[in-house]
Amino acid sequence: MPYDESVPPTPRRRPQRAAAALAAISLCLTAAGCGAASDDGLSGQPAEPRPGSDGTSAASSAPVPGRTSAAPSTPSGPSSKAVDRAVSGPLSGKTVVIDPGHNPDNRLHTREINRQVDVGTGRKECDTTGTSTDAGYAEARFTLDVSRRVRDLLRAQGAKVVLTQDGDRPYGPCVDERARIGNAAKADAVVSVHADGSAVGNRGFHVILPGLVRAGKADTSKIVDPSRELGARIAGLFLRATGSAPSNYIGDKTGLDVRKDLGGLNLSTVPKVFIECGNMRDPKDAALLTSAGWRQKAAQGIADGISGYLKG
User: What is the pTM of this model?
Assistant: First the structure.
């Protein structure tokens, strides 16, 4: 769930490559290879792991050698980055920042996350707690789990991957710092992972793209077009990997939405998008989001979209 309420999407002329990717989404909806996700998730995936002490699954919480993430020592300042493992592959030389939305412990730090920060066009809350399923599975747990899976998939292709947080901070980071982390890394692509909190019956995923903003500290003029290309790639390949349809309530069933009010996009100087993987408040979507097998499919779709974008 993004940090602010939705605003009407802003239509833009689609670049040729992005339009082709959108056409692929429509085609995939009727293709035999884009079936719905199975009830038991991805074949061969382990059963749902037990929760770990940080609110994420124990399996995904295990330390990973050479893990790259934001440092926990300075919650309000720019995060440092560890050196990623050198792996040869098709994405060698590329840097990707994955931004797990919210933080499992934000709920314990309401004073800190409610403070106002500069988002380029005004001031808004540092962060929010995010949403959850009716059964209490928190968006912040979901985003961290999926982000770790995406990281591992991209690292296997040789990319340097930075997480804005890895369950290693007491709260946040704030939305302005999340943007700074991507900018400081000179990332080739940044993806912020979320799940929505909408009404029952509202289903499906959508990718949020930056609108054209030139105000205050915000200038998205150089990232609008590449971000749209990145978003279109992710939308098409997320559909293929998960079988989930584009949102039936945002984006006119294209799987894409444009916003000008999100500081994480407005303050970015590198291509960046958000993905809302589904609606946690709808029971059918919630059943998918709480499945470890489906989360692996979601991670695969996101990673495939990033990889496809970076390879051109």
Answer: 0.77
